[in-house]
Structures are given as C-alpha cells and as structure tokens.
Amino acid sequence: MINTETLRCIESVLMTQGKVSKDAVLQWMRHSSLEVLGAVHELVTYSPHWERVDPPLEEADLLAFLIPFYRRCLLEDPKGEWALSRYEAAAAIASRFRALARDEEPGQQVLLVELKNLLAQVYLGNDSEVQTAIVTGALEHVLEEPRFRSFFADWSKHESLKQAYDLAMEWAICHER
To answer: Cis (ω within 30 of 0) for the bond into 146?
Structure first.
C-alpha cells in the first residue's frame, strides 16, 4: 500500500537541494510499497541526490536495498510514476554495471556479483516474459562492454543459462561499446 505522506516527503527531498538524513533514507528503504521504493531508488542511485544523504549510505545499505527492489520490479512489473517496470529495472541493472565498473572501490565488486546472481536467480526461476526482459533489458547491454563478458562466461557453461548468454552475446557483439 502506498503511503502518500511518505511519498510526498521523498518527492520533496528530490526537489530540494539540502541534506537528507541517512536515518530517514534507511527507514524509507524498508517501506513495502514499490512506488515509495522507486522514489527511494531515484534518491540513492542518481547524482546529485545520493550525495546529499548525510552521513553517506554504506555499501551494505545500498546492497540490502537494491537487490530486493530490483527483484520485486523484475517479478511484479509494477506500473507507476516511481516504481520501475520490469524492463526499467533490467535497464537500471545494466546501468549499475556500467557505473560500478568505473568505480574501483572494493565494495563495488560485491554489488556486481550480487547483481549477476540476482539476474541468474530470477532468470532461472521464472517464465519466458521475465527471462526475455532479463536478456534484452539487462544482459545484452551489460555484455556490450567487453570487460563484462568474462565475468558472465560461466553462464555459457550452465545448462539453463547458456541460451540467455548466447542470445545476449549475439546482440552484444553487434553493438559493442
């Protein structure tokens, strides 16, 4: 259920330039509404918003929020102003890969591994609609970057992930960055 008061509060924070309390952000991250969580996603993943969280979020906080949020969006395919549709979530995951690859901090590697695991788990446990979104919305675009191909190479040897990897590689080779 959407808590309009919470959503309005987050929207207000997004429209202003002042600091926002880490405690408030952590509380919002635990909300059950995907619409509220979508607004939180905007706050914690896009500059200059995330830079205003004071004190800054820890990598563990971000990981604990992003993985379940993306999972729910991929599975539930919500419609709303802030919640990410299935394909928007897949595209956001691809964008996170590109952003994290530019960041040399050790904690970023953990998030890359967790995002990769999320894609595999959701792909393996779901129907062709969800699988197609993962391949065309995320994996193809991640693999456009040659540096990620070895990171996903184990998919080419996995009986149930090989087809996804092969389809994504067909696209990726033609659209290499």
So the answer is: no
